[in-house]
Design goal:
Layout: E1 3-6, H1 12-20, E2 25-29, H2 40-47, E3 55-60, H3 65-75, E4 79-82, H4 88-96, E5 100-108, E6 123-129, H5 147-150, E7 155-157, H6 166-173, E8 177-180, E9 185-187, E10 190-191, H7 193-213
Helix pairs in contact: 1-2
Length: 215
């Protein structure tokens, strides 16, 4: 089954809705320039409203190890998404402290997806090119260019995904997982319940049809 992460959540009701529909992970953004930024206190109300088995991801840009650990603990997150120019050593330190690490890379731009091998043990998230925000830039791209990486690692496809194009993206890239934020919003930072439902159900239907087609 495809790993599904809904990122940039700002309230517990939407988080529970996502969990009830069967997502694999939810993300809270700790980056003040983003319209999806939340406080640690708000994030805590979100993570308390979903099952403990769900991956609860704190999205950060160039945090120190101590900062990342403190926010994750206070916010009730069990994973960190590093969306800046963090070093492999930062990722390893977080993993040694029991956190799952997702590291963002780019097909065009830095850090390049080619450097993903240095982050052994982390899950790779790939977008087209770095934008003004750590994700949520709504920039679509040639998803097929990520396919060669998805064959060799647990790769999460991100960047410009929406209910309308997710099926094509899955066909093109065949990723291990998908991550959506702006593509399921009615306005920057405002999640749309029906768009979320459509996105999740489309991915789940893709998985079902792929399973039925397998010999």
């Amino acid at each position: 089954m495809t790993f599904i992460k809904i990122c940039g959540l700002k309230n517990p009701e939407t988080a529970k809705f996502c969990a009830d529909l069967g997502v694999s992970a939810i993300g809270c953004v700790f980056y003040k320039k983003s319209p999806r930024h939340v406080s640690v206190e708000t994030a805590r109300t979100i993570t308390r409203n979903v099952p403990e088995t769900l991956l609860r991801v704190a999205v950060m840009v160039n945090p120190s190890v101590d900062e990342a650990l403190a926010i994750a603990q206070s916010a009730g997150c069990n994973a960190i998404q590093l969306h800046g120019n963090e070093s492999p050593e930062t990722a390893f330190s977080l993993m040694k402290n029991g956190l799952q690490v997702i590291k963002a890379f780019y097909v065009e731009g830095l850090p390049s997806i080619a450097s993903a091998k240095a982050f052994s043990g982390a899950i790779s998230l790939v977008e087209a090119a770095s934008g003004k925000l750590p994700g949520g830039n709504a920039a679509t791209w040639d998803w097929s260019s990520a396919r060669r990486f998805s064959k060799t690692s647990s790769l999460i496809l991100a960047g410009g995904l929406s209910p309308e194009n997710i099926l094509q993206a899955l066909e093109d890239a065949r990723p291990w997982g998908v991550d959506v934020s702006s593509g399921v919003e009615s306005a920057p930072g405002i999640k749309d319940i029906e768009k979320i439902r459509h996105f999740i159900e489309t991915v789940q239907q893709f998985d079902l049809e792929k399973k039925e087609a397998s010999p």
